[in-house]
Amino acid sequence: MTAFADRLIEGVRSKGTPLCIGLDPFPDKIPAVFGPTGSVLALQAFSENLIAIAAQHAAVLKPQLGFFEAYGPDGFAVAVDAVARAKLAGMAVILDAKRGDIGSTAEGYTRACLGPAPGFDADCVTINPYLGKDSLEPFIAEAQAREKGVAVLVRTSNPGARDLQDLNVDGAPLWHRVAEMIEPAAPRLVGASGWSGLMAVAGATYPQEARALRALMPRSLLLVPGYGAQGASAADAAAGFVTGKYGREGGVISSSRAVAYPPAAQAAKTLENWRAAISDAMSTAAAELRAACIS
Amino acid sequence: MTAFADRLIEGVRSKGTPLCIGLDPFPDKIPAVFGPTGSVLALQAFSENLIAIAAQHAAVLKPQLGFFEAYGPDGFAVAVDAVARAKLAGMAVILDAKRGDIGSTAEGYTRACLGPAPGFDADCVTINPYLGKDSLEPFIAEAQAREKGVAVLVRTSNPGARDLQDLNVDGAPLWHRVAEMIEPAAPRLVGASGWSGLMAVAGATYPQEARALRALMPRSLLLVPGYGAQGASAADAAAGFVTGKYGREGGVISSSRAVAYPPAAQAAKTLENWRAAISDAMSTAAAELRAACIS
Predict the structure, then answer these.
(1) Are A102 and B156 inside 8 Å of each other by CB?
(2) Are B282 and B19 in contact (CB under 8 A)?
């Protein structure tokens, strides 16, 4: 085994891009070629096909569990299958579950998200810090024991992030306190690369804040959502990265809608045309982010 | 249909107790009489039997989804079944999922937790406020449209609650800001009883804080976890309730371990003995809370 942080950064270096493909299966956007709208069949076929192409362009997949749960237990099973498929295809999987609970319930979620079958056995899971350190500890302990990672929500990319995350606590925004709260655990998940798999989630829509976060958490890999459809540029998205011998690096940058639902793919009448359109979109996103990390 | 708040408070009045039964299926604590340890079979049998007895003593069930998810997709399906069973038995169900996400993903979780089949169709769901107002809105809108409720984590009962929730923001703890952030939405879920189904979660371990929360959110029903095994007394747990013509009321108080795993039930060798022990424990908890609300 290799530390999650090392596997992630090796994947990024080998693909030459920090692109992370977000798997957000909107029922209404899944093309009819995959099956009846809203069916579990279409969900499964879409996920399977998207992952096969994603594995050619990116080192990391981020499935949004909420979309799968909307289909009930069968959708949950499709999500488990999607994680397994992506891992088989050589991708690292960050399960975007945004879990957060206390004590034994947190242990249940840990087992579900990071544990072996019947768990997802994902490489990393997103978690919410509102309940405090003891709510994060089961996830971090499991990550440490089994070469996994955790990605803590620090500063998200939505407008509502301002409501609580930016509140002033003794001269700094609340999310700085979150970063300070979790940073002491970062060494526990550091790999040979020097990077830590205690990741911080910081929206690409706020590049200045990504730089501030980098200062607060120098070793943590960042998970940057919001690139593409949410309006951030490649340079903005990489604002929290640092320059080293492999170029600018320090995390992954997630794109969902722009790579999974480009207009050409939505207009495709055949599976072949859809595949070509998705491949184009992912290739473009990968190249844009590559360029932003070379300059 | 009747507003969720009215259904909840009617249930509490009719049972004469604010007791809410927490369904936390610890794999290691489920008695062998229900099936092999750790099996989905045992999970299903335990849940089914516990709900049948719970419906006799309490108006509300709170299943902890994390315990079910630890069993994978089959466990998720058992949770869906448990919610349906409890509703059929006449209970209101607060799905303890602690979800929190943005935009379309929040809509996915809303559909999963509160939506009709293949969703849970729970009466209420617990949600995490860290991502701000826009992350709560899909849940509140669905609750308003379909006579459901939401229970927002405000001040939790774990030691780690201090790490962020108690941080000082301009003279008041962060959790006061959370209460102030959500209070304006409370009227949208108010029923004929005058109570709002925009519930606030406030741990029973901090009665002074429950009183402060009551002042900040006068109409909101409270969901008070941590009674029983977590060490709070019945009077502490009811600290956020107010005196009216039906006695002290204003929410529900959850007990999990004390009513689901009392020593007599754990020692039982037959299903009949287990049932009797569980019934005794629930009856005792119901009576203790009844007494605390009469005085």
Answers:
(1) yes
(2) yes
